[in-house]
């Protein structure tokens, strides 16, 4: 008997694993067991993680892990740029910060790592 959880989308019990993902063959929904959805459901608050999976908090210092082109400008935030005193926000870009030489901006947590 399978100990895998049912699909959160269609409640099918025929789920299977593919690496770290759980997949439903009936509706093609893919999710991770114990992923961000589980963290929200258990604690009731949103957990924001960096590119390496470490939990971020207000006031942390992070570094950028990918060159980021700024929309509407010719400037680029280079790999390794250190960003101090971040603030976590809701939305797609979940980090609000100020970068020296560029100014105030918002970043996605997937493109930073905690120092």
UniProtKB/TrEMBL annotation:
<dbReference type="InterPro" id="IPR004624">
    <property type="entry name" value="YjdM"/>
</dbReference>
<comment type="similarity">
    <text>Belongs to the YjdM family.</text>
</comment>
<feature type="domain" description="Protein YjdM C-terminal">
    <location>
        <begin position="48"/>
        <end position="115"/>
    </location>
</feature>
<feature type="domain" description="Protein YjdM N-terminal">
    <location>
        <begin position="3"/>
        <end position="32"/>
    </location>
</feature>
<protein>
    <submittedName>
        <fullName>Zinc ribbon domain-containing protein YjdM</fullName>
    </submittedName>
</protein>
<dbReference type="InterPro" id="IPR013987">
    <property type="entry name" value="YjdM_N"/>
</dbReference>
<dbReference type="Pfam" id="PF03831">
    <property type="entry name" value="YjdM"/>
</dbReference>
<dbReference type="InterPro" id="IPR013988">
    <property type="entry name" value="YjdM_C"/>
</dbReference>
<dbReference type="Pfam" id="PF08274">
    <property type="entry name" value="Zn_Ribbon_YjdM"/>
</dbReference>
